[in-house]
Each structure stands twice: as C-alpha cells, then as structure tokens.
Design goal:
The complex is a heterodimer of chains A (about 600) and B (about 270). With about 600 residues, chain A is mostly helical. Chain A has 16 helices and 4 strands. Chain A has one domain: Cytochrome C Oxidase, Chain A, CATH 1.20.210.10. In chain A, about 60% of the residues lie in helices and about 0% in strands. Chain A has a two-stranded antiparallel sheet. A two-stranded antiparallel ribbon of chain A has the order 3-4. In chain A, strand 1 and strand 2 form a beta hairpin. Chain B has 2 domains: about 100 residues, no CATH class; about 140 residues, Immunoglobulin-like (Sandwich). In chain B, a hairpin with a 4-residue loop joins strand 6 and strand 7. The longest helix of chain B is centred in the first third of the chain and has 32 residues. Chain B starts with a helix and ends with a helix. The chains are: A mainly alpha (about 600), B alpha+beta (about 270). The interface between A and B is large, with 115 and 105 residues.
C-alpha cells in the first residue's frame, strides 16, 4: 500500500457510457450520490407514511379516497383499518431507520467524502462499493413490494418481535408474505451494510495520503470509520437473527417459538424456542444501530461548528476517544430495551449501569461543542444553523434518555410516547439535522452549484421550531401513560383527555412536513439553476475544498495531496487568513 | 440573534410544561401529567422520576441557555477574531468527572427502587392470581378456595366452549378455579401475579398502579404489588400484539376487603 499513497490507482479511467457512469458506477462519488437519492426518496416516503399515521390518530375512520386508489385491499373505502395503520407504522420505522438514517449519512456522505477527505482517489474496493449500493436498492424494492402482496405489509413494528412475526398469517394480516418480504429485505440490507463497512474500514486504514496521520483526520472521517466498525459487528448479528426468523417462518424450525402456543384457538406445532432470544439478537444490533445513525451526524456537527466558529475544534483527541467510547459501550447496553421483557431484574442493573456510562462520552461531546463555540467568530450560515440545532436536539433527546435508562422509571415510561419522543428527537431528528447540515455544506462540492442561503435559513426556522412542537408534547403524553403503537385513542377512558395534545402534534407535523417543500424546491432548483460554486466557498480547511466542484473522476487529477497539519486549523495567529488548509506548510511554530 | 432567542423561548416553555403550571392553565389533560398513584411502590417510582427530572432539568436548562448565549455572544463581528485554542485536558477531566459522579449518584438511588419493586419474595399471605393474555383479551384466573391452580393443557383450549385456558377437567385442583375477563383485588393486601401468554408477547400495564410487565409465551413472570387506593383502573396492553392491540382493555377493581369477598362470591355463583 505504500505505493498507493504516492500515485493514483491505475484502474481509474473515467467511464464514458451512461450506464457505466451513472448506473453501474464504481466511482465512490457517483455511488455516494446514488445513496443520497435513495435516502431522499425513502425519507419522503417515510414522511408521507407519518402523515397518515398522525392523521389517523386524530381523525380515525375518515375517508381518504387517495388511499383506496393505491391500496384497495388495505384501505377499503379509503378508511384506514387498524392493521393498515400498523402496516404504515412498521414501514415508516423500517424505511426511516434502515434506508434513511443508516443510508444517507454513511452510504451517502461517507462514500462521497471519506476518500476525498483522506486524500484517496476512490474506495479500497470500488466494485464491492457498487455491489453494496445495488443490494441496498434491491432491499428497498423488496421491502416496498410488501405493500402490494396479499395481506399487505407486516404489522409487527420495525422490531418484529416473535412470535407475532414468526407465526404467519394466523397471527394477523400482513404477517404472511408481507412479513417474509420484510425479513428478506432486512437480510439483504445487512449484506449490503457489511460490504460497505468492510470497504470503509479498509479505505480509512490503508488509503490515507502522505501526512494524513490518524490524528489529523477530520472528525467526519473518524465518525464514518467508527460507524463502519459498528456496522461490521452489528449487521452480522441481525443477518443471523433474520435467517433464523426466516427458517422459523418457512422451514419449520423453532428458534423463537415456544411450545404450547394457541393462536385463534389453533394449537401451533412448534416447541422449544424463546421469544426473548430474538429480542437479545435484535437489540444487540439495534442499539449500535442508534449510534450508526447518529455518529456521522456528530462528525458533521463537529466539522461545521469548527469551520463556522473559525476556531479549532475543542478537545480533538477527547472527541476521538468519545467516539470510540460510545462505539464500544454501544455494544453493552442493548438490554435497556428489555427491562420489561421478563429478563432477570439483576441483568437490568448491568445494562442500566452501562447505559449511564455511555452518557459520559455523550456529555463530553456536548461540552466540547460548546467549548468550540466559546470565543469563536461565528458565521451563521445555513449549515451552521443545523449544526447548532443538532447540539440543541442532542441535549434534549439525551436528557430524556436518563429517564429510560433507569429500570425503576422505565416501569412507567416503557413503551409510552415518552420513548417515542426520546428516540425521534435523538436518533431521528438530530440525525436528520446532521444530514441537512451536511447537505447544505457539501451541496456545492457535490453538484458544482450553491443552494440558496436565504431559503435554507427559512427551512431551518420552520424545521427547528416544528420538530420541537411535534416531539416535546409527546413526553407529556408518555407521562400520562399513553402507550405507543395504538392506531386509535378511542378505546380507553384515560386517553380521551389527551386528544387535544394529539391534535396539536398532528397540526405541527403537517406544517413541519409541508415546510420540507422549501428544502426540496431549493435543492432541485439549485441543482440546475444555482449559482456556480467556487472551490472553497466556506473557507474550510479539509481536502475536499482544494479540488474543483464537482471533483474530477479520480478526485485529485492524478496527483495525491500531501498533508501537513490537522483538520481544524482556524484563526492560527500570524497566518494571513483565518483558515489554514491541511496541505499548507506551517508558517509559524504552532 | 433569532436562533438564541428561539432556543431560550423553547427551553422556557418546556420547563413550564413540566412544572404542570401551564397544563393547568390550558386545561390540558387533567393538569397533572402523572395519574394519581394507587400502589405501594408507585410513590417511590414517582419520586425517582421527579428526582431525575430535577437533575436532568438543570442540565437541560444550563446546556440550552449556554448554547443560546454562545451563538449570540460570539456571532461574527468586525474586529473580532476567534481564539486559537485546542482545548484543555484539565477541563475535559473536570467535566467528565462531574458528569460521571452526578449521573451515577442519580441512577444508583434508582436501583434500590427497582430491586424493591422487582426482586422480593411474595409474603405468605399474598393473593395469587394468574393473568393469561391472548389476542386480544385478558384471562384472569383465581385458584378458588383450595388455593391451588388446576393443570392446564394447551390442546384443550377452546374459546368457544368457554375454556380459554385449557383447564384439564381430570385435575380436581382445577374444579374450583375461577376464570374471568376482569380482575378484582382487595386494597392494601399483597398481590402475587403470575403473567402468561397464550400466543404472542403482550404487556400487562395499569397506569395508576405503575405496573408494566411483558407477558411472554412460554414464560411465567411474577409481578408483585400492593394496591393502596380503591378504584376501578383500566388494564391496557403495552406491547404490540397485532391488529387489536389498542382494544385489549380490561379492568382492575381495587375493592375493600368486604367488597372483594362479595365479588368473589358473586363470581363463583356463575
């Protein structure tokens, strides 16, 4: 590999045909853009599902003619049935977690910028990279096809707890073919994620250019690297669990199905399995998955806060250690999803302690972000707004975690809207803010044009206020005991007084979702009509800001850069400008 | 400017909402977010919640106020240059230590509460009741005067024939077993529930009693508590169990000793 850092790979000649260039491309930049658009499509779909979810909670039984057009079986007469609501809920969660939060930050931005930021001309395994994207695409197609099979999409939630998910149609609509497609989709996604993770890890270790020592890497690179390690360890376990579930469903095995089950008065011919086994395997993946979604957002936020404060990141090393700390501890906390599962109460204390430990590196990151802002010279650009928004949401979603990591308080809050509020704020919206920040920041590099700053700020305003209006009241619903995953709120006396809060949330959701049109129009308008971008519009220091926008096929036009300093050298005393490129040699003794 | 003010306003509103002041003004819900506690352990669970609320509330307010202040105070201005500073190990160590101590103190107190609720043997005089969940109903079984639950055989289960649990008629211990769709218990008496499920995973939860526990097929999970306030409470399912999840409702009647005795008598006459 010593040669690789000196000169470009010989394999790289820019493909000319449309198919090789844009469809079956091995160029990490094209693949990054493909991932980005796949995630953009998915997030729109997931958002539309959430509109129906919120609508049904407030106005159940209303006729929506459009629904019948698309789903004549699921919504007869255009009215959402409870099972159709649960199918939407399941698909919303699955799409958002896998095809948005896992895909956009890592597959999208990671693919595009990791090689450039370490001074490489591509990923270590370009063909594997292509395969990884197309498998993700197939996984999405398989998942969405579940909407259109007999029985519709599965109704067991994105967590797919057996026996509900293992017994087939007898346990409910959508649990036949729909559930099988769901498990298949997830298994394919796991393979894609594993290939991607291998690629990211190898690239980071082997392909760094001369002078790009580990401790000079941008924190974005660190976050993609740690995320890839998490992915490598977590998706393998989910793949195994998925295969076991498929076998329980179709090969007559009983990994997750205990004996003596009677469903709808029928004795089930399985015995010896354990429903809790799935929960352990699923959450062994599921909790690291939360960090897979949020770590890249932390990386982007660090990058943006330093760049726009015109100040070195506060505590670079502490930030790197905290990333690793969160990554490692992330594998020891899965049981906090299972305090009420029937698991031993003593085990709960171990998982609770570990979860408390993980709050410490999270707090370190927050302190360091605030420390970065302190005595900076802050430019309030659109990406910076989203970075500050990320910190605010990270704090809000973080402190509510401290109620849920204690088994004693979780007795009451488990599976209520308090949990819904917590994970939406921290893993959903905060991660999305990281994605938005990255989009506004890197758009010019990726597409050679600039997005409108004005409309970006308007979009931020609506979104920031909007998400707080949606998710803050959910804490109170949880404190009033409102269980999650209820299609309607009409069946219980104690839910009736909460209707006005649900109405408020639904209206806030409609407004916030509508406001995303501002982003979409800005995005697509800028794609074709935006102002031509300069090489380094933000006056940032990392390597992507030294090459044309968009970069040439092999990134550095055959001549790999040499790096002399860290990624966050802003406002260095005695230097002519307030940013010092990573490739510039030091002029002072700093 | 606007950003800082937005963050501060939002922080203020959130704090006010948590204090119950605003909800009462708006006549939202019942004013109090938490329903009135009705079991012996509910008070300590609630206390732990409010202690956590105090600690995290301080952290939340300090962090948000600081965030707003920093973006306001250090926004770009002519003549202002950023401070070239890479951080301080002393500060890293200080805030790491501070966070660790505060968080651990807070959660450690909670473990006592947890063990109190979940890890104690049922007293001798505890009333044994079995709860068997199914899609989408609750079956409550009392052992009857003999104090013994009869044998259950899944192959005998027949909802239509009125044997939802599969009670074995061969077993004399099962003859006096009482199976009903709603639960009644006497106030201030320890209760020893055994939670089971026939089909998929459900969750037995009663808000006012701060009870919540999955019922897992293939497992018998104990849940021990003492109700302290008479009343009729709703039992809800809190684990997604299928299309009727949201309709899986039953009642828990907490009665006086005498009321309970009368209720038992009434039931066994059927």
């Amino acid at each position: 590999m010593a040669d690789a850092v000196q000169t470009s790979h010989a394999v790289h000649e820019a493909p000319t045909g449309f198919w090789r260039k844009w469809i079956f491309s091995t160029d990490h930049k094209v693949i990054g853009i493909q991932y980005f658009f796949l995630a953009l499509f998915s997030v729109l779909l997931g958002m539309i599902l959430s509109i129906f979810i919120r609508f049904n909670l407030v106005w159940p039984g209303t006729e929506i003619p459009l629904l019948e057009t698309f789903f004549p079986m699921g919504a007869p007469g255009g009215v959402m049935t409870p099972e159709f609501y649960l199918a939407f809920l399941t698909m919303h969660g699955t799409i958002m977690v896998f095809f948005v939060l896992t895909t956009a930050p890592q597959g999208g931005f990671g693919n595009y910028f990791l090689p450039i930021q370490i001074g490489a001309d591509d990923m270590a395994f370009p063909i594997l990279n292509m395969l990884s994207f197309w498998l993700t695409f197939v996984a999405l197609v398989v998942l969405l096809s579940a909407f259109f099979v007999t029985g519709g999409a599965p109704i067991s939630g994105w967590t797919a707890y057996p026996p509900l998910s293992a017994l087939g149609e007898i346990a409910g609509p959508g649990l036949g073919t729909g559930q099988t497609l769901w498990v298949l989709s997830i298994a394919i996604f796991c393979v894609a994620a594993l290939l991607g993770a291998l690629n990211f890890i190898t690239t980071t270790i082997d392909m760094r250019t001369e002078g790009m020592t580990l401790m000079r890497m941008p924190l974005t690179v660190w976050s993609w690297f740690v995320t890839a390690i998490l992915g490598l360890l977590a998706f393998g376990v989910l793949l195994a669990a998925g295969i076991l579930l498929l076998m329980d469903r179709s090969a007559g095995t009983s990994f997750f199905i205990p004996g003596g089950l009677v469903v709808s008065d029928q004795l089930i011919d399985h015995k010896g399995g354990s429903p809790l086994l799935w929960q352990h395997l699923f959450w062994f993946f599921g909790h690291p998955e939360v960090y897979i979604a949020i770590l890249p957002g932390m990386g982007v936020t660090s990058q943006l806060l330093s760049t726009f404060s015109r100040k070195p990141i506060f505590g670079y090393r502490a930030m790197v250690y905290a990333l690793f700390g969160i990554g490692i501890l992330g594998f020891m906390v899965w049981g906090h999803h299972m305090f009420m599962s029937g698991m031993s109460p003593y085990t709960a204390i171990f998982f609770s302690l570990m979860t408390t430990v993980i709050a410490v590196p999270s707090a370190i990151k927050t302190f360091n972000w605030l420390g970065t802002l302190w005595r900076g010279n802050i430019r309030m650009t659109t990406p910076m707004l989203f970075a500050v928004g990320f910190v605010s949401l990270f704090v809000t979603g973080g402190v509510s975690g401290l109620f849920l990591n204690q088994p004693s308080t979780d007795i009451y809050l488990h599976d209520t809207y308090f949990v819904v509020a917590h994970f939406h704020i921290i893993m959903g919206v905060a991660a999305i803010f990281g994605i938005f920040g990255g989009t506004y920041y890197w758009f010019s590099k990726m597409f050679g044009r600039q997005m409108s700053e004005f409309w970006g700020k308007v979009h931020f305003g609506f979104t920031f206020v909007g998400v707080y209006c949606i998710f803050t009241p959910m804490h109170f619903l949880g404190m009033a005991g409102n269980p999650r995953r209820y299609p309607e709120l009409t069946g219980f006396d104690f839910l009736e007084p909460l209707a006005s809060i649900h109405l408020f949330i639904t209206i806030a959701a409609f407004i916030t979702i509508s406001a995303q049109m501002i982003f979409l129009i800005n995005f697509f308008w800028s794609l074709f009509k935006g102002k031509k971008a300069e090489i380094n519009p933000w006056q940032a220091t990392t390597l992507e800001w030294e090459i044309p926008s968009p970069p040439p096929h092999d990134n550095f036009a055959g001549k790999l850069p040499v790096v002399y300093r860290g990624a966050y050298e802003y406002s260095v005393p005695g230097e002519p400008q307030d940013f010092s490129m990573q490739t510039s040699q030091k002029t002072s003794a700093s | 400017m606007l950003l800082a003010i937005t963050i501060w306003i939002f922080t203020l509103i959130t704090v006010l909402l948590f204090t119950d002041l605003v909800p009462e003004m708006l006549e939202l819900a019942s004013g109090e977010w938490f329903p009135e506690a009705a079991s012996a352990h509910a008070a300590i669970v609630d206390t732990q919640f409010f202690n956590t609320l105090m600690v995290t509330g301080v952290v939340f307010v300090l962090a948000q106020v600081a965030l707003g202040y920093l973006v306001l105070r250090y926004r770009e201005r002519p003549g202002q240059t950023a401070y070239y500073f890479h951080g301080s190990n002393k500060m890293e160590v200080a805030w790491t230590a501070a966070t660790t101590v505060v968080f651990f103190l807070m959660v450690s107190v909670g473990y006592g509460v947890w063990l109190d609720v979940y890890v104690h043997a049922a007293p001798e005089d505890a009333i044994q009741i079995e709860v068997t969940a199914q899609q989408f109903a609750w079956n409550i079984r009392y052992p009857g005067p003999d104090g013994q639950f009869g044998r259950i055989r899944p192959e005998l289960i027949d909802d239509a024939a009125g044997n939802p649990l599969g009670l074995d008629p061969q077993d004399p211990a099962g003859e006096d077993d009482l199976v009903v769709p709603t639960m009644a218990i006497p106030v201030n008496r320890p209760i020893d529930l055994i939670l089971r499920s026939k089909d998929v995973t459900h969750n037995f939860s009663v808000r006012e009693l701060r009870l919540k526990q999955d019922t897992v097929p293939g497992m018998m999970i104990p849940l021990r508590f003492t109700a302290t306030k008479e009343g009729k409470y709703e039992i809800a399912c809190s684990e997604l169990c299928g299309l009727g999840h949201h309709r899986m409702r039953s009642f828990l009647d907490v009665l006086s000793d005498q009321g309970y005795a009368e209720w038992l008598e009434d039931q066994s006459e059927f």
